[in-house]
């Protein structure tokens, strides 16, 4: 059942080219500009005209929500707030009649997310679900929703569900931007084509596996690890850190790279591995300076860079190359080596990768 892989997590990591394709199958046909989301028909207008969107989720799904915030704001010019479901539900949040609330959940059973949705509904919000498990509680409570169709995710650490969530949220944002006219036809078309090319790019990113494993061997005994990113890659840093914490029990923190000088830079010394997501995008020059700041303090830098980068490899200790894509789609590609890194480190530390201590696949208690 693990399809020849040693763990479900590794199988699920390697399934991503297929799970992303399954996610847009029948929905996205780039060469004729087609994007059909049957799951949001009735509320498509409400979404297009929304004055604001609130996203509620937990854990990895919350990280997908953060990427979606940047995407919706850039593509659709709709203000987005991303909330931990557990915080939202207990603080009498301001929700107006007709506000759009999007709940993101792999399992569809997360108690806090479910309660946040019910609260939003009781205040008159339109609640849309982005769920992996068909027929789950969250999918039943939503007014409408889009399934991620990533297939069953068995490993407790979420991997393919995350990239499928990003795929669905990107499709929703593109659909809204197109209807709203906030994205020109040509740009819209080029995004559809680029989205269609993501499975092949993920496939290529998976080829870093052997190299990532060698890097894992060097850092497996670290006690701490810092993950830095900017813009669309900031949530990728948070997600990379969460993956390392939950399955290898190494303390890790994700930070927006520019925040480093406001505190975490004090942690950096020769012992501190710093994973920097430094792909070529609009914040490239800024992240290069952040790398210099870390190197000046003798931190060990592992950089995720775009193919062909000739600058960063000369500055850092290790580089992992991934194929380039549009900034907004980079999280789907850049997250792959980070999933592999946490996986290999956990295996080398003899951790129970698929069932880490203290964690459950569905968190049905608050
Ligand atoms: C991380 C992880 C958890 C879940 C969180 C939300 O790898 O598995 O952080 O992402 O418990 O779960 P869902 O998406 O099922 O609501």
From TrEMBL:
<dbReference type="GO" id="GO:0008483">
    <property type="term" value="F:transaminase activity"/>
</dbReference>
<keyword id="KW-0315">Glutamine amidotransferase</keyword>
<feature type="domain" description="SIS">
    <location>
        <begin position="215"/>
        <end position="356"/>
    </location>
</feature>
<comment type="function">
    <text>Catalyzes the first step in hexosamine metabolism, converting fructose-6P into glucosamine-6P using glutamine as a nitrogen source.</text>
</comment>
<feature type="domain" description="SIS">
    <location>
        <begin position="43"/>
        <end position="182"/>
    </location>
</feature>
<feature type="active site" description="For Fru-6P isomerization activity">
    <location>
        <position position="361"/>
    </location>
</feature>
<protein>
    <recommendedName>
        <fullName>Glutamine--fructose-6-phosphate aminotransferase [isomerizing]</fullName>
        <ecNumber>2.6.1.16</ecNumber>
    </recommendedName>
</protein>
<keyword id="KW-0032">Aminotransferase</keyword>
<keyword id="KW-0808">Transferase</keyword>
<keyword id="KW-0963">Cytoplasm</keyword>
<keyword id="KW-0677">Repeat</keyword>
<comment type="subunit">
    <text>Homodimer.</text>
</comment>
């Amino acid at each position: 059942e693990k399809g020849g892989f040693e763990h479900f997590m590794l199988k699920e990591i390697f399934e991503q080219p297929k799970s992303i394709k399954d996610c847009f199958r029948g929905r996205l046909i780039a060469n004729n500009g087609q994007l059909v989301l049957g799951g949001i028909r009735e509320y498509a207008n409400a979404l297009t005209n929304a004055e604001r969107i609130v996203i509620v989720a937990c854990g990895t799904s919350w990280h997908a929500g953060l990427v979606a915030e940047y995407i919706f704001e850039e593509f659709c010019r709709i203000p987005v707030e991303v909330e931990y479901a557990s915080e939202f539900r207990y603080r009498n949040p301001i929700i107006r009649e007709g506000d759009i609330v999007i709940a993101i959940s792999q399992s569809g059973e997360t108690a806090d997310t479910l309660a946040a949705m019910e609260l939003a509904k009781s205040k008159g919000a339109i609640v849309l679900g982005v769920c992996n498990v068909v027929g789950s509680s969250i999918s039943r409570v939503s007014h409408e929703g889009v399934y991620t169709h990533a297939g069953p995710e068995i490993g407790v650490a979420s991997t393919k569900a995350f990239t499928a969530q990003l795929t669905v949220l990107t499709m929703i944002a593109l659909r809204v931007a197109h209807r709203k006219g906030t994205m020109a036809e040509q740009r819209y078309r080029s995004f559809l084509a680029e989205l269609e090319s993501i499975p092949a790019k993920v496939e290529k990113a998976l080829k870093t596996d052997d190299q990532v494993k060698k890097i894992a061997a060097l850092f497996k005994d670290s006690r701490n690890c810092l993950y830095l990113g900017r813009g669309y890659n900031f949530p990728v840093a948070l997600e990379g850190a969460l993956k390392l914490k939950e399955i290898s029990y190494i303390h890790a923190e994700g930070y927006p790279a520019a925040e480093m000088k406001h505190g975490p830079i004090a942690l950096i010394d020769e012992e501190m591995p710093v994973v920097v997501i430094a792909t070529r995008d609009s914040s490239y020059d800024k992240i290069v300076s952040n790398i210099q700041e870390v190197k000046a303090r003798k931190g060990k830098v592992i950089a995720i860079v775009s193919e062909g980068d000739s600058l960063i490899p000369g500055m850092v200790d290790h580089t992992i190359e991934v194929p380039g894509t549009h900034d907004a789609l980079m999280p789907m590609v850049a997250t792959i080596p980070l999933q592999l890194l946490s996986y290999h480190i956990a295996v080398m530390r003899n951790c129970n990768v698929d069932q880490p201590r203290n964690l459950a696949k569905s968190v049905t208690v608050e």
